[in-house]
Design goal:
Elements (H helix, E strand, L loop, with lengths): L3 E6 L13 H18 L4 H7 L2 E11 L8 E11 L3 E10 L6 E12 L10 H11 L1
Antiparallel strand pairs: 1-3, 2-5, 3-4, 4-5
Length: 136
Protein backbone atom coordinates (compact mmCIF):
# COMPACT_ATOMS: atom_id res chain seq x y z
CA UNK A 1 0.00 0.00 0.00
CA UNK A 2 1.20 3.45 -0.82
CA UNK A 3 2.03 5.60 2.18
CA UNK A 4 0.07 8.76 2.89
CA UNK A 5 2.35 11.79 3.21
CA UNK A 6 1.15 14.88 5.05
CA UNK A 7 3.45 17.96 4.83
CA UNK A 8 3.68 20.36 7.77
CA UNK A 9 5.75 23.21 9.12
CA UNK A 10 6.76 23.63 12.75
CA UNK A 11 5.32 26.79 14.29
CA UNK A 12 6.12 28.55 17.55
CA UNK A 13 2.96 27.09 19.14
CA UNK A 14 4.43 23.59 18.59
CA UNK A 15 7.65 24.28 20.48
CA UNK A 16 8.97 24.74 23.97
CA UNK A 17 11.18 27.56 25.22
CA UNK A 18 14.18 26.04 23.41
CA UNK A 19 12.35 26.16 20.03
CA UNK A 20 12.14 22.35 19.96
CA UNK A 21 8.84 20.56 19.34
CA UNK A 22 7.26 19.70 22.67
CA UNK A 23 6.96 15.92 23.06
CA UNK A 24 3.14 15.70 23.17
CA UNK A 25 2.82 17.67 19.93
CA UNK A 26 4.26 14.78 17.94
CA UNK A 27 1.07 12.89 18.83
CA UNK A 28 -0.97 15.81 17.49
CA UNK A 29 0.99 15.73 14.24
CA UNK A 30 0.33 11.99 13.87
CA UNK A 31 -3.38 12.42 14.69
CA UNK A 32 -3.73 15.21 12.14
CA UNK A 33 -2.12 13.07 9.45
CA UNK A 34 -4.39 10.08 10.17
CA UNK A 35 -7.45 12.35 10.07
CA UNK A 36 -6.39 13.91 6.77
CA UNK A 37 -5.73 10.46 5.30
CA UNK A 38 -9.25 9.30 6.17
CA UNK A 39 -10.71 12.53 4.77
CA UNK A 40 -8.76 12.09 1.53
CA UNK A 41 -10.36 8.63 1.17
CA UNK A 42 -13.87 10.06 1.63
CA UNK A 43 -14.07 8.58 5.13
CA UNK A 44 -13.59 11.72 7.19
CA UNK A 45 -15.60 12.98 10.14
CA UNK A 46 -18.88 13.49 8.24
CA UNK A 47 -18.71 9.93 6.89
CA UNK A 48 -17.88 8.58 10.35
CA UNK A 49 -20.88 10.34 11.90
CA UNK A 50 -23.07 9.05 9.10
CA UNK A 51 -21.81 5.49 9.68
CA UNK A 52 -22.16 5.96 13.47
CA UNK A 53 -18.60 4.84 13.91
CA UNK A 54 -15.94 6.35 16.12
CA UNK A 55 -12.22 5.71 16.28
CA UNK A 56 -10.20 5.86 19.48
CA UNK A 57 -6.51 5.44 20.06
CA UNK A 58 -6.03 2.25 22.07
CA UNK A 59 -2.25 2.32 22.36
CA UNK A 60 0.81 4.18 21.15
CA UNK A 61 4.45 3.24 21.04
CA UNK A 62 6.58 6.25 20.22
CA UNK A 63 10.31 6.82 19.72
CA UNK A 64 11.73 10.33 19.79
CA UNK A 65 14.87 10.09 17.68
CA UNK A 66 15.91 13.65 16.85
CA UNK A 67 14.35 17.02 17.65
CA UNK A 68 12.10 18.85 15.25
CA UNK A 69 12.71 22.58 15.55
CA UNK A 70 10.94 25.86 14.95
CA UNK A 71 10.41 26.54 11.20
CA UNK A 72 11.40 23.00 10.15
CA UNK A 73 9.53 21.73 7.12
CA UNK A 74 8.48 18.20 7.97
CA UNK A 75 6.12 15.49 6.79
CA UNK A 76 4.23 12.73 8.49
CA UNK A 77 4.42 9.43 6.63
CA UNK A 78 1.55 7.09 7.52
CA UNK A 79 1.08 3.47 6.56
CA UNK A 80 -1.23 0.69 7.67
CA UNK A 81 0.73 -2.02 9.40
CA UNK A 82 -2.18 -4.37 10.05
CA UNK A 83 -5.97 -4.63 10.04
CA UNK A 84 -8.16 -6.72 12.32
CA UNK A 85 -11.94 -6.99 12.55
CA UNK A 86 -12.17 -4.01 14.90
CA UNK A 87 -8.88 -2.15 14.66
CA UNK A 88 -6.14 -0.66 12.52
CA UNK A 89 -2.48 -0.38 13.41
CA UNK A 90 -0.75 2.61 11.83
CA UNK A 91 2.99 2.95 11.41
CA UNK A 92 3.86 6.66 11.35
CA UNK A 93 7.00 8.71 11.21
CA UNK A 94 7.84 12.38 11.20
CA UNK A 95 10.74 13.23 8.94
CA UNK A 96 12.39 16.33 7.57
CA UNK A 97 10.98 17.18 4.16
CA UNK A 98 14.23 17.98 2.38
CA UNK A 99 16.15 15.01 3.76
CA UNK A 100 13.66 12.15 3.78
CA UNK A 101 16.21 9.84 5.38
CA UNK A 102 16.19 11.98 8.55
CA UNK A 103 13.51 10.43 10.74
CA UNK A 104 12.78 12.60 13.75
CA UNK A 105 10.10 10.55 15.47
CA UNK A 106 8.27 7.31 14.79
CA UNK A 107 5.19 5.71 16.29
CA UNK A 108 2.96 2.71 16.07
CA UNK A 109 -0.65 3.63 16.81
CA UNK A 110 -3.46 1.14 17.39
CA UNK A 111 -6.87 2.63 16.64
CA UNK A 112 -10.05 0.76 17.57
CA UNK A 113 -13.44 1.12 15.97
CA UNK A 114 -16.27 1.90 18.42
CA UNK A 115 -20.04 2.21 18.25
CA UNK A 116 -22.14 4.92 19.90
CA UNK A 117 -21.90 3.20 23.29
CA UNK A 118 -18.08 3.09 22.99
CA UNK A 119 -18.03 -0.68 22.58
CA UNK A 120 -15.83 -2.26 19.92
CA UNK A 121 -17.56 -2.86 16.61
CA UNK A 122 -16.41 -4.22 13.27
CA UNK A 123 -14.71 -1.83 10.90
CA UNK A 124 -17.14 -0.49 8.31
CA UNK A 125 -16.98 -2.67 5.20
CA UNK A 126 -15.78 0.17 2.95
CA UNK A 127 -12.84 0.89 5.24
CA UNK A 128 -12.02 -2.77 5.80
CA UNK A 129 -12.20 -3.55 2.07
CA UNK A 130 -9.97 -0.60 1.20
CA UNK A 131 -7.21 -1.47 3.64
CA UNK A 132 -7.35 -5.27 3.43
CA UNK A 133 -7.57 -5.15 -0.37
CA UNK A 134 -4.46 -2.99 -0.52
CA UNK A 135 -2.63 -5.15 2.01
CA UNK A 136 -3.28 -8.37 0.10
Amino acid sequence: MKAFIFPMKVYIEDTDFGKVVYHSNYLKFFERARSEWMASLGMGMAWQFEQQVFFAVRSVTIDFLKPARLTDEVEVVSEIKSVSATSLIFSQQLRKTLTTDTILCKAEVKVVCLDQTFRPRPLPRQLNDFFTGDLA
